[in-house]
Amino acid sequence: MDLQLRGKSILVTGGSRGIGRATVERLCAEGARVATCARGQETLDEVVAGLRAGGADVIGNVVDVTDGDALESWIESTASNWGGIDGFVSNVSARVYRTDLERWQENFEIDLFQHIRAIEAVLPHLRSSQGSIVIVSSIAAMMSQLPDLDRAYGPMKAALASYGSQLAQIEGANGVRVNSVSPGPVHVDGGFWDEVGQQQPKLYALAERLSVMGRLGRPEEIAAAIAFLTSPLSSYTTAANLHIDGGTVKSVRY
Ligand SMILES: NC(=O)c1ccc[n+]([C@@H]2O[C@H](COP(=O)([O-])OP(=O)(O)OC[C@H]3O[C@@H](n4cnc5c(N)ncnc54)[C@H](OP(=O)(O)O)[C@@H]3O)[C@@H](O)[C@H]2O)c1
User: Which domain range does residue 42 map to?
Assistant: First the structure.
């Protein structure tokens, strides 16, 4: 299936590892022009160099998304260099390990507010191009039986999905589609669930059992859905929240 992404200009935050990286790789493979950002220069440079060696049109910039000015300036300068933006994938998250009150502020900044700041900055460009936004949420937004590592993460992801849904209603009239994807546990080498597997094998095994596939997700399985939602092939899909969790959440999804 041709996603018709060839020549489309798409920004992805947090593209040096995990789901963000798999998304950058997938979009490049589809022929899109991709810009991504992360804090760590070395990994970012490696990813970009590898993709360019394969012929991809991709750039990577060191940007910390919690620095609002830097985030907005990255979006503006990329739009100006490219002459427009067709898609935006808001992917970066704060991960979870602590439950103290300061952590709520950190989750608010990274799991909610920076997404909103970035989306507000990118919207004028997407109105011009009739573009698409994909927000990376999580099934943690709708689960109340999470391990006690996670108290602020799920509520912020829930707020993020709600924001995306409302924004889709408002921006539809301007020709901008807004969708979310909500992954279940995804095994990223060196990532959260990799660490859980080493430090809390029973919790990892529970996550495997909860999926009807008997395993965790893979980054590329989430990236494929993100690529579809950024693409013109999903032209009638907006305000969706696509759960990609291998059947982990046991509720009827009407
Ligand atoms: N993995 C899962 O099980 C899972 C499940 C459900 C939902 N999700 C969601 O999927 C998304 C990606 O998760 P992931 O597991 O793939 O993450 P990850 O492996 O931890 O990768 C995160 C990426 O974001 C970058 N990043 C982190 N903080 C940043 C910051 N402040 N500014 C700029 N870049 C930053 C990282 O690079 P640097 O560290 O170099 O900055 C890296 O490229 C998140 O929204 C997460 O909530 C993941």
Answer: 9-244
Tokens of 162: 């709600």
Residue 2 within a domain: no
Does residue 138 lie within any of the structural domains? yes
DSSP for 49-101, please give it.
HHHHHTT-EEEEEE--TT-HHHHHHHHHHHHHHHT---EEEE---------SH
- Tell me how many domains the chain contains: 1
Structural domain contains residue 253: no
**11, 12, 16, 19: which to mutate for ligand 1, most atoms within 8 A of CB?**
19
- Is residue 39 in contact with ligand 1, taking CB distance under 6 Å? yes
Give the H/E segment covering residue 35: strand 33-38
The DSSP bridge partners found for residue 90 are 135
Phi, psi angles (nearest 5°) of residue 9: -105, 115
Contact 126, 133 (CB under 8 A): yes
CB distance 191 to ligand 1 below 6 Å:
yes
CATH of the domain at 87: 3.40.50.720
- Is residue 254 included in any domain, yes or no? no
pLDDT per residue as tens digits for the range 119-166: 999 999 999 999 999 999 999 999 887 777 678 899 999 999 999 999
pTM: 0.97
Give 231's strand partners: none
